[in-house]
Amino acid sequence: MDSETDAVLVERCRSGDREAFATLVVRYQRPIYNAAWWVLRNAEDANDVAQSVFLKVAERLDDYDPQYRFFSWIYRIAVNESLSMLRRNGHEEPLDDEIDVAGPEGDDPERHASDAELSARIRSVVMGMATNDRTVLMLRHFSELSYLEIGQILDLDEKTVKSRLFEARQRLRSLLPDLRGHSR
Amino acid sequence: MSATAATRLMHAVLDGEATPAEARELEGLLEADPALRERFGEWRTMFDAMQRMPQAYPPEGLVAAVMANIPHVPAAPGSQLSPHSRVIGVISEPHRAIPATSASILRSSRAMAPPGGMMSDQQELPSSKRKIWIGAGVAAIAVIVVGGYALDAPPGSKDAVGTIVPAQRFVAPQNTAVDVQPGQQQARPRIESIPATEVAAGQAAGQAAGQASGQAAGQAAGQASGQAAGQASGQASGQAAGQAAGQASGQAAGQAAGQASGQASGQAAGQAAGQAAGQAAGQVAGQAAGQAAGQAAGQAAGQAAGQAAGQAAGQAAGQASGKAAGQAASQAAGQAAAMAKK
């Protein structure tokens, strides 16, 4: 069943097949959890949102339009749920302890020599950025969605998506002054 | 081209969203401008690093928690695994009239049901059973009525009508000689004036009419009782079949759900138990192995040390005693020689 397409699994879910639904949950638990985690920056909240997302998917499966990717649809629910939780909380939760936001200045360039270290550092910096910036960066770079799909998820046109991405990247770039030493 | 426009073009190319014409344009710009080429290299490094950003791992129980809280997956009407089979679905029709705001409450109450998940539907069975018994009773009555018609007992309306038109009962005595008395002819003129052919015709007409009315009445009664019997037995069998189908589909759906959640939870529990068991076994085995190794090593070391010490001590003692004995013997021999000289 793992090899079945989303469309087939969704159709089976609509026929009341719980096993098919469990397969979808297993398939998307990680990206959905990560999407929530990028927005909320808190593991416990991300877990709550991920569970809530799958429950909503089960409730609204009849509303899903198969002409769109199932992935995009479920991502839209995840992002909206995460943003709703942020609004309900009234403020952003402090960063989890595991997230280390390193200051961009005064660091030894040697410390960030490897690609893995650079990736981890960029993630830390992104986590310190505003919600809108990290959401759009997450959708493009972590989830690898197209401008069109990002627009569908955030209810934005493609031009606005491009513009938001450009500005978020400019801000991120300004927080990584030592990037020049890494370029190949 | 401005620096901002060039950067936007770089982003489009690195995102894979640039048109072939835009990609060619950027290529030309990079060839002509080394500084731009360097900037493009920096952006590419950042994009590559972002693609490799580490992912967070969801907690192990996420799937099990989700599956445990999902009461049912929306099912298309008439589908095989639909939680509501047609029969039970009709009974539970009022649930659909519950406002959307209450739907979650209904669902959460269903979530409390066992993995079978269809207990809320099965709770409505008493009403169904009552209907089945009523239907069966009606069917039994109808069968008796139909059977009665088929066996002609008690006498049917057809026979009753046939005897009510007794042409022979009136005519036969009139034809006997005893009844025909002189002077009494005026007393029964009417009877005598009826010809035999008319009597026969009356008989035939009466019989025909009786047959026709009997047939019609019998047919109507038969149809009515047959319809009633058929409807009742159809309802009863339909309810029974629907109930069986509902139970079967409920069982199948419940089984699937149970398996899914069981697998997930079993996996988590298995991992935890495996870790704990492995840790405990490792500790025990490590302790035993360490103890055995310590004992063996201690024994070997002790033995070797004992031997070496014993040898050394024996050698030293032998040497010392040899020396002392030699010395004593030589002294004694010297003394003896001196005394002999004297």
Describe this entry's structure for a reader.
- The complex is a heterodimer of chains A (184) and B (342).
- Chain A has 184 residues and is mostly helical.
- Chain A folds into two domains: 1-96, Rna Polymerase Sigma Factor, Chain: A; 100-184, Orthogonal Bundle (Arc Repressor Mutant, subunit A).
- In chain A, 65% of the residues lie in helices and 0% in strands.
- In chain A, α1 (6-14) packs across α2 (18-40), α6 packs across α8 (158-174) and α7 packs across α8 (158-174).
- Chain A is elongated and about 55 Å long.
- The model of chain A is unreliable at 99-106 (pLDDT under 50).
- By secondary structure, chain B is mainly α.
- Among the domains of chain B are: 3-51, no CATH class; 124-179 and 188-256.
- Chain B is 78% helix and 0% strand.
- The longest helix of chain B has 146 residues, at 196-341.
- Chain B starts with a helix and ends with a helix.
- Mean pLDDT of chain B is 61; it is low at 76-130 and 152-195.
- At the A-B interface, α2, α3, α5, α6 and α8 of A face α1, α3, α4 and α12 of B.
Helices, strands, pairings?
The complex is a heterodimer of chains A (184) and B (342).
Chain A: H1 6-14, H2 18-40, H3 43-60, H4 70-89, H5 115-127, H6 131-142, H7 147-154, H8 158-174
Helix pairs in contact in A: 1-2, 2-3, 2-4, 2-6, 3-4, 4-7, 6-8, 7-8
Chain B: H1 3-15, H2 20-32, H3 34-51, H4 62-69, H5 86-91, H6 100-111, H7 119-122, H8 125-151, H9 157-164, H10 167-174, H11 189-193, H12 196-341
Helix pairs in contact in B: 1-2, 1-3, 2-3, 4-12, 8-12, 9-12
